[in-house]
UniProtKB/TrEMBL annotation, chain A:
Residues 8-133 form the Histidine kinase/HSP90-like ATPase domain. Pfam families: HATPase_c_2. This is ATP-binding protein. The keyword Cell inner membrane does not apply. Its EC number is 2.7.13.3. GO terms for molecular function: ATP binding; protein histidine kinase activity. Keywords: ATP-binding, Kinase, Nucleotide-binding, Serine/threonine-protein kinase, Transferase. InterPro entries: Anti-sigma-factor_SerPK, HATPase_C_sf, HATPase_dom. It comes from the Bacteria.
Automatic annotation (TrEMBL), chain B:
GO terms for molecular function: anti-sigma factor antagonist activity. It comes from Nonomuraea dietziae. NCBIfam families: ant_ant_sig (TIGR00377). This is Anti-sigma factor antagonist. PROSITE patterns: STAS. Keywords: Phosphoprotein.
Length: 142, 116
């Protein structure tokens, strides 16, 4: 198992960097080209959610991403330190209730729709989103 | 790639040309443009997303916000998009039922003309 860890300040500009790093490592790990867009979007969603949560609760704290090549899977875990409630998924779509600045429920829904395998761990001390995709067994080692 | 925005008037429609990445960093610029257009009386917006190569839920939120604003004036906000990777996020979130999505600017203009 090889791991790359990345921490970044809660600034929107850094989300793109995180997406690019995750996509580059996914490619190197042997994730199929057709899945790389999904990796890019899902990691971007998780990082955007974390950045918005940190900006609201703890702007000085960094966000952490862990990228692992583990037994033929490419696994990404995004961890934040902002208190979070349980995420209610599959809520009925109510246009009037949607905020145009931050739609965290949408972000999680998008990740769930994109990643092959997703687990969300909300807690008062922060949220951890773990997602993974199949990687080719003969993929390169990180 | 950064975000490039432009807009022009075509009969009753204001066509907003978007190019690049719409994410948590760049979406505020699109939000400002849509708000500015509505404030100046453009209530029928067509957002051309054919040159958008990345869209996340923050971008979706901006489009939903724009839609809410134009609807408050009995207006419309519709999209031109044929890229599967962008359409996928609309499908996942159920927003294909909320936005009119067309394959080309001409097709959108034709549909808009029929609705007049």
């Amino acid at each position: 198992m090889a791991t790359v860890e990345l921490t970044f300040s809660a600034l929107p500009a850094h989300v793109r960097t995180a997406r690019l790093v995750a996509t580059a490592i996914a490619r190197r790990t042997g994730v199929e080209e057709s899945l790389l867009d999904e990796v890019r979007l899902a990691v971007g969603e998780a990082c955007s959610r974390a950045v918005e949560a940190h900006r609201a609760h703890c702007p000085g704290e960094p966000i952490r991403i862990e990228l692992k090549d583990d037994s033929g899977r490419f696994e990404v875990t995004v961890s934040d330190l902002a208190p979070s409630d349980e995420i209610k998924q599959e809520q009925p779509l109510d246009l009037g209730a949607l905020s145009d600045s931050f739609m965290s429920g949408f972000g999680i829904a998008v990740i769930a729709g994109l990643a092959d395998d997703v687990e969300v761990f909300p807690s008062p001390k922060g949220m951890r989103i773990r997602m993974s995709w199949p990687a080719a067994p003969n993929g390169h080692v990180i | 790639m950064d975000l490039k925005l432009d807009h022009h008037q075509d009969d009753r429609l204001t066509i907003v040309e978007v190019e690049g990445e719409i994410d948590v960093y760049t979406a505020p610029r699109l939000r400002e443009l849509l708000i500015d257009l509505v404030n100046k009386g453009s209530y029928h917006l067509l957002v051309n997303m054919e040159k958008v190569d990345f869209l996340d839920s923050t971008g979706l939120g901006v489009l939903v916000g724009g839609l809410k604003r134009v609807r408050a004036h009995d207006g419309s906000l519709e999209l031109v998009c044929t890229q599967e990777r962008i359409l996928k996020i609309f499908r996942i979130t159920g927003l294909t039922k909320v936005f009119g999505i067309y394959a080309s600017v001409d097709e959108a203009k034709e549909a808009h003309g029929r609705d007049k």
